[in-house]
């Protein structure tokens, strides 16, 4: 379609945090929105404040593997209330001057859309919006995404956007465009049908290091620490063969070899979803690498699944174990016991995976978590020959665990999402001192 519609700028904001690294973290929601706007005839511009391949950047990718790599960083003073932490706070992403130059180089946009991901990254979002205002003071700025959905009222008061929108950008997107530009664009496709969406606009990036894939949204489980049900209340799946065709497109057209699944529940309903997808990957491709940094459901890993994953080229496999302590596992709606974990690990090893490729996430820093339980889980995972990976707990509003997290935290979590940063262990107690955590981390490695 000819782009004679409004000019819309999409911005992936800076991250302000104690640590950040591109572990296959792309703003997939924003890039899907960009593709949808193009399909609707809009002129789309894109600035990625986290751009590792910015034309002015010095390549920092010498140690990068499978497309991952470090961001440029600029030290910042620690936020109020967190000054005493033994960690350095930084802005991750391109320097302000480059961002200003990129904003100035654009013809004035009619509308600016900004995304948001982790709740506790909001200071980076606010700084991004402030920088935008300096250069384009009269253009409306609309914020959406995960933080905007989970902390809507906070985002309205903290970020300085003209509008904050919660939830997935389906039909709402065209309403936003109409509200702020006056252009009424008729819907070009059914946004409830994931296969009707154009492919995400990865081509707007300076370099495509890897392709994020979304084969489904939503999750049938309701783990008490997770907000998936709030973010994507309806589970929807794509046609597995259409996913394989998308992979073929990125590979043939852009030479992409690394693909990263962003699904909450990739392996659920295996007969009609993951298995046909994997069969098609085995049949159609060679030499591609697939990664699942988002945990997979252990119970779905049987010999057939493991073999197909291995043959398809799965390279980074992460299992969502969370704990091996039965009572806690039950509370988390996972109900995966150590026996099932051992079985799944056995199937993966028999299929050909080595210990470097497979890791099991264990949650660390949960409210009321006992040190000895985590220690036990780490040892149990190691005994199976799988790498335990500590996933530091971040309290998330609208989850079952939120109330308890608020009650036990040494910070006022409700007052400011900055205190939900997993790097500061908001629910840490005496059982999890900084030394204890360092020892536990060591236990995962030694
Ligand atoms: C994929 C994923 C990852 C990826 C990368 C994500 C990234 N880009 O950084 C990986 C695996 C690396 C990852 C890691 C982590 N993740 Co994660 N992840 C997800 C997951 C499953 C999907 C996110 C996604 O891309 N969805 C697909 C896209 C299409 O959706 P979207 O971005 O939401 O966009 C839609 C809407 O939000 C909206 N929208 C987006 N932008 C805009 C803008 C405008 C203007 C508008 C109108 C609308 C709009 O429209 C889009 C299309 O419908 C979510 C759970 C979930 N279901 O959302 C957790 C989630 C975001 N992760 C979470 C966590 C905790 C983590 C980790 C900290 C885990 C850990 N403890 O170690 C790490 C840290 C990551 C980091 N970057 O440092 C939490 C967030 C918690 C918080 N406090 O904010 C979530 C919510 C899961 C949970 N536990 O509930 N994650």
What's the SSE blueprint?
Blueprint: E1 7-12, E2 15-17, H1 28-39, E3 43-48, E4 73-76, E5 89-92, H2 96-104, E6 111-114, H3 122-135, E7 141-143, H4 146-150, H5 152-158, E8 163-164, H6 172-181, E9 211-213, E10 216-217, H7 228-231, E11 236-237, H8 240-254, E12 258-261, H9 274-284, E13 289-296, H10 303-312, E14 314-322, H11 326-331, H12 338-351, E15 358-364, H13 371-383, E16 387-392, H14 402-408, H15 434-445
Parallel strand pairs: 1-3, 1-6, 6-7, 7-8, 9-12, 12-13, 13-14, 14-15, 15-16
Antiparallel strand pairs: 2-5, 4-5, 10-11
This protein binds cobalamin.
Question: How would you describe the overall organization of this protein?
Answer:
There is one protein chain. The protein is of the alpha/beta class and 446 residues long. The protein has two domains: 7-181, Cobalamin-binding domain (Rossmann fold, 3-Layer(aba) Sandwich), CATH 3.40.50.280; 210-445, Aldolase class I (TIM Barrel, Alpha-Beta Barrel). Helix content is 33%, strand content 16%. The protein contains 15 helices and 16 strands. The chain has helices at 28-39, 96-104, 122-135, 146-150, 152-158, 172-181, 228-231, 240-254, 274-284, 303-312, 326-331, 338-351, 371-383, 402-408, 434-445; strands at 7-12, 15-17, 43-48, 73-76, 89-92, 111-114, 141-143, 163-164, 211-213, 216-217, 236-237, 258-261, 289-296, 314-322, 358-364, 387-392. A six-stranded parallel sheet has the order 9-12-13-14-15-16. Strands 3-1-6-7-8 form a five-stranded parallel sheet, with helices on both faces. It binds cobalamin.
């Amino acid at each position: 379609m000819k782009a004679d519609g409004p000019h819309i700028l999409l911005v992936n904001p800076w991250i302000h945090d104690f640590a950040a690294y591109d572990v296959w973290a792309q703003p997939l929601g924003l890039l899907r929105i960009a593709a949808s706007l193009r399909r609707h005839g809009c002129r789309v511009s894109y600035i990625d404040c986290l751009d590792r391949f910015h034309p002015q950047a010095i390549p920092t990718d010498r140690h990068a593997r499978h497309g991952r790599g470090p961001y440029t960083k600029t030290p910042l003073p620690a936020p109020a209330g967190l000054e005493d932490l033994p960690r350095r706070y930084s802005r991750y992403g391109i320097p302000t001057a480059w961002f200003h130059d990129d904003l100035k180089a654009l013809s004035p946009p009619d509308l600016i859309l900004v995304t948001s991901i982790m709740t506790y990254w909001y200071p980076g979002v606010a700084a991004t919006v402030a920088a935008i205002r300096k250069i384009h003071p009269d253009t409306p700025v609309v914020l959406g995404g995960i933080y905007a959905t989970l902390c809507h009222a906070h985002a309205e008061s903290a970020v300085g956007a003209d509008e904050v929108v919660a939830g997935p950008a389906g039909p709402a997107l065209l309403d936003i465009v109409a509200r702020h530009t006056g252009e009424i664009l008729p819907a070009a496709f059914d946004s409830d049908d994931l296969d009707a969406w154009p492919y995400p606009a990865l081509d707007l990036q300076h370099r495509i290091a890897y392709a994020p894939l979304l084969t489904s949204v939503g999750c049938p489980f309701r783990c008490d620490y997770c907000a998936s049900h709030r973010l994507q209340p309806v589970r929807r799946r794509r046609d597995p063969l259409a996913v394989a065709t998308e992979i073929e497109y990125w590979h043939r057209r852009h030479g992409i070899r690394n693909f990263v699944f962003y699904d909450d529940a990739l392996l659920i309903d295996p007969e009609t979803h993951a298995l046909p997808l994997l069969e098609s990957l085995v049949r159609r491709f060679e030499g591609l690498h697939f990664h699942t940094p988002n945990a997979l459901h252990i119970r779905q890993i049987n010999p057939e699944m493991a073999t197909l994953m291995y043959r398809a080229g799965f390279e980074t496999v992460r299992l969502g174990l969370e704990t091996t302590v039965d009572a806690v596992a039950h509370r988390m709606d996972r109900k995966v016991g150590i026996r099932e974990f051992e079985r799944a690990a056995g199937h993966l090893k028999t299929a050909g995976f080595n210990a470097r490729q497979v890791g099991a996430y264990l949650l660390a820093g949960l409210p009321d978590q006992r040190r000895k339980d985590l220690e036990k889980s780490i040892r149990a995972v190691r005994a199976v020959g799988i790498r335990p990976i500590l996933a530091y707990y971040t309290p998330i509003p609208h989850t079952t665990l939120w109330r308890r997290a608020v009650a036990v935290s040494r910070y006022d979590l409700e007052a400011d999402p900055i205190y939900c940063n997993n790097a500061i262990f908001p629910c840490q107690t005496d059982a999890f001192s900084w030394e204890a955590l360092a020892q536990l981390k060591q236990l995962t490695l030694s």
